[in-house]
Specification:
Layout lengths: L1 H22 L19 H6 L6 E10 L17 E9 L1 H12 L5 E2 L20 E3 L1 H6 L6 E7 L4 E7 L2
Antiparallel strand pairs: 1-2, 2-6, 3-4, 4-5, 5-6
């Protein structure tokens, strides 16, 4: 009986050492994140932001915050922070309604041109022109999921969303 117990303990010890040695090997190389593909579908945007009424078209991208700067990082379990940026062409009447109700407010301010924090892959899709932003405009696009900064073209129908979770 004692000999069998020692034999089992020895077997457990050898198995543990072999498993530990295997785990100490080189970790597999982390794959780089895929290139940010620009998207043009509207449903993911309109379902998240009901204030996006009657969009005509959109160019947008989304991803996990920090992945593009540290693609080989090891993912820890738990929630991730996401970003989403979109250049949306609104129905002209919707854009005018937003401008009339919100952008004419004295608190509206000119956005630096180009719109700040716009990702490089989206920048070529941004129409030239002056954009305005305000707390009231941002408030129109509040969601429980995203904090959203919004910029509206002063004389056009383009709206830019810069959203992130945290």
């Amino acid at each position: 009986m004692l000999r069998t117990r020692r034999h089992l303990l020895g077997l457990v010890a050898v198995t543990t050492v072999v498993a530990a040695a295997s785990a100490c090997g080189n970790p597999p190389e982390a794959a780089a994140p895929p290139a940010k593909a620009l998207r043009h579908d509207l449903e993911p945007l309109t379902s998240r932001w009901p204030a996006l009424v009657q969009p005509v078209s959109a160019t947008w991208a989304a991803g996990v915050q920090g992945m593009e700067t540290t693609p080989s990082r090891i993912e820890a379990p738990g929630p991730s922070d996401y970003w989403l940026q979109a250049i949306v062409t609104l129905d002209p009447a919707v854009a005018e309604s937003l401008r009339t109700r919100i952008i004419t407010d004295p608190a509206a301010s000119a956005a630096p041109n180009p719109v700040p924090w716009l990702r490089a892959e989206l920048a070529p899709s941004l129409p030239a022109g002056e954009y305005r932003t305000s707390r009231e405009l941002d408030a129109e696009f509040v969601t429980s999921e995203f904090k959203t900064l919004v910029y509206l073209q002063v004389s056009g129908s383009v709206l830019v969303l810069a959203a992130y979770t945290s």
